[in-house]
Amino acid sequence: MMKLKLFVMFLFLGSLCFAQMWINDLDQAKRLAKTTNKLIILDFTANWCKPCKEMEREYWNNPKYKGSLGSFIAVSVDFDSEKFLRSYYDVKSIPNVKVIDYQGNVIHQSLGFLNAKMSDLEFGGFPSDVTLLYDVLELQKLKNPSDAELIEVGSAYQGLVQKSVNSRAKNAFAKLSDTYFSKCIKKTEIAEFKEKARLAKAFNSVLTDNPKHALKNIDITKVSVGNKLSAFYILLHASYSTENRADAEKWFAEIERTGQEDWIRNAQKLKAKYAK
């Protein structure tokens, strides 16, 4: 009986410690997020909100899903008292959950009640380390970023598409990534940058399970020499994704023919992934 009591107490304390991961100070959360290279999750809630409390019980404070919450700095925002945040993030009803970066930019949001399974699909696929993004985040503040800077920010978001696990996270980062590539396409007068941004958008379509879009929109005969390798790799990825092994082998051979070791290694990793 004593062992059973100790076991129950251990489970209780474990759950309690997990619940204490939440903080209520967004400024503190932003500092922590920047230091630890994590995203922030904002859960707008209230004591009277039964769906909010049910989500807390089933998902947010459930040790079974601690891995998902561990990817974030978690902030609980009181809907009634935090009127500024409620207005700033345009929160008109709850449950309302937002994923933001350390500067407060919204990356993803979810409105309404979600059971534990759906909540994990919504938030469980975000990367636990977003150094790629935070290294270039200051560039977003520039009033007139260069073509290269727009490509750099778009590529950082694209890197997080590749690090994400599920479609919600992938699509959230891909949308932001495409925004910067589109800005570059619209702004630049340099053909190589315009082409690079278009290829990058095509790669996002491959990464978000729409490889046919890339295959349709990349004409390798019209791609410049400077962007040829990128195009080969995107077409290789798209061909594997559509199970077109013949074309995949063709693009793999093209990459090998260049003798570029980094690209060859990436192609080999991709080949090994789809060989499983």
The average pLDDT is 90
Give the spatial strand order of the biggest sheet. Answer: 2-1-3-4
- The first-level CATH class name of the largest domain: Alpha Beta
Biggest β-sheet: count, sense, barrel?
Answer: 4 strands, mixed
Distance between the ends: 49 Å
Query: What is the overall number of helices?
Result: 14
Total of domains = 3
Describe the structure.
The structure is a single chain. This protein folds into 3 domains: 12-129, Glutaredoxin (3-Layer(aba) Sandwich), CATH 3.40.30.10; 130-209, no CATH class; 211-276. Helices cover 61% and strands 9% of the residues. The protein has helices spanning 2-19, 26-36, 50-60, 66-69, 83-88, 116-123, 131-134, 147-163, 167-187, 191-207, 211-217, 228-241, 245-258, 261-275; strands at 39-45, 72-78, 96-100, 106-111. It has a 4-stranded mixed β-sheet with strand order 2-1-3-4. A hairpin with a 5-residue loop joins β3 and β4 (106-111). α3 (50-60) packs across α6 (116-123) and α11 crosses α12. It starts with a helix and ends with a helix. Residues 2-20 have low confidence and may be disordered. Its EC number is 1.8.1.8. This is Thiol:disulfide interchange protein DsbD. Keywords: Oxidoreductase. One of its GO terms (biological process) is cell redox homeostasis.
